[in-house]
Design a protein that fits this description.
With 377 residues, the protein is an alpha+beta fold. Helix content is 31%, strand content 24%.
């Protein structure tokens, strides 16, 4: 008799034994299993045959989005051929859907033909390829399924994804994606990432290097031949929430006033008002790319301003490219603290969540920068 149920702490030893029997490399460690068994942002399911754990599926949930990822799936060699994988995947889809996910994504070795056949049977479609993904340097297919079907209505343009290379260059990376996704010959580079930050930085934040000011990003885009506009619901100065040092505040005020003066001198349109979701979509539909300032609180519980770029929309969600992969300098790609590129592209964010995410700080700052390829009157 087959039983499907949530994984429990008492399953740890059986899970480790199962992992060892199924994988020669890329194994989940005891420490990681223990963490996932108590982690709130996952769907962890096991299949039992005669009360013995014979298979498991682990799905991780991306906070603040409607995106889930099949992190790992294993079936004991002695239990194969009984449909456990299919049962676990369907149970995982149900759990992820109940948690609010719209998409379930996965990676699978390109030589694992049986798994690929099963995923295709269940409605998963390939949308990419990772070269040199596994410990043995083998490639992985990237597959995806909408587990909450809907009729898409968004733009299908191709927008490149770029990872920020420092903790403070989300703005430049988002801007490079936006500019590279428009007609023209702009080529992003690590050098330009730093140069854009130098042009747009607020100088300070609560700690460490400053992030990027919306007017600074708009000016930087204009200097590179793009038409830019900025929407800010607060005349500023910006980002002073949480900054206690009065000298830092003084410098940030000077930087803000300088950006305002530069925009006036460059005739760059600045709208001191909110832009609602429909206006964001209208600009996207017109062919522009849109940078949006969000708070990361719903994604990582940190109240930090963060720049993303819109990549699409539908009736339920807005989609964004997020340049932040987490702490890739200290975490391996098998750790949830370091996200794969797959986890950062076309993130579906429900419209009701997005309204809350696109406000920052006690001032409820909202800001959007719209970039177009040609100058407009």
């Amino acid at each position: 008799m087959i039983e499907i149920r949530p994984a429990q702490s008492k399953d740890l030893s059986a899970l480790l034994e199962l992992e060892s029997s199924c994988f020669a490399t890329d194994r989940i460690s005891r420490r990681s299993f223990r963490r996932w068994l108590s982690h709130p942002d996952c769907v962890f399911t096991v299949a039992l045959i005669e009360q013995q754990v014979s298979a498991y599926a682990l799905v991780t949930l991306r906070r603040g989005t409607h995106l889930a990822r099949l992190y790992s799936l294993a079936v004991a060699p002695s239990a194969r051929g009984q449909g456990l994988a299919e049962k676990l995947i369907k149970a995982s889809e149900d759990g992820a859907r109940d948690a609010g996910s719209i998409y379930l994504r996965l990676e699978v070795a390109s030589t694992n033909y049986a798994a690929i056949t099963l995923y295709k049977k269940l409605g998963y479609k390939q949308f990419g390829l990772y070269e040199d993904y596994y410990e043995d340097h083998g490639p992985a297919l990237r597959m995806e399924k909408c587990i909450h079907p809907y009729t898409p209505s968004g733009d299908s343009r191709t927008l490149p994804w770029l990872a920020q290379t420092t903790a403070f260059t989300c703005g430049p990376s988002a801007l490079m994606m936006a500019m590279a996704g428009l007609p023209g010959d702009y080529q992003p580079s690590p050098e330009d990432e730093i140069q854009l930050w130098r042009e747009a930085t607020t100088v300070f934040m609560t700690s460490g290097h400053g992030g990027c000011h919306p007017l600074g990003l708009a000016l930087a885009a204009q200097r590179r031949g793009f038409y830019a506009q900025a929407w800010i619901n607060n005349p500023g100065p910006l980002f002073l929430d949480g900054v206690r040092d009065e000298n830092k505040k003084r410098v940030m005020r000077i930087a803000h006033e300088s950006f305002v003066s530069q925009c006036e001198a460059a005739a760059l349109p600045v709208h001191y008002e909110d832009m609602d979701q429909q206006q964001v979509i209208d600009h996207f539909q017109s062919g522009a790319n849109v940078l949006i300032l969000i708070s990361t609180y719903r994604m990582d519980s940190m109240k930090a301003p963060h720049w993303v770029v819109m990549s699409g929309y539908d009736d339920r969600c807005l989609y964004v490219h997020d340049p932040d992969r987490g702490d890739t300098s200290t975490a391996s790609m098998q750790d949830e603290d370091a996200r794969s590129a797959l986890d950062c592209q076309h993130l579906p964010i429900a419209r009701d969540n997005f309204n809350a995410m696109s406000r920052f700080g006690s001032s409820r700052l909202r800001s959007v920068v719209v970039i177009s390829s040609a100058a407009k009157s």
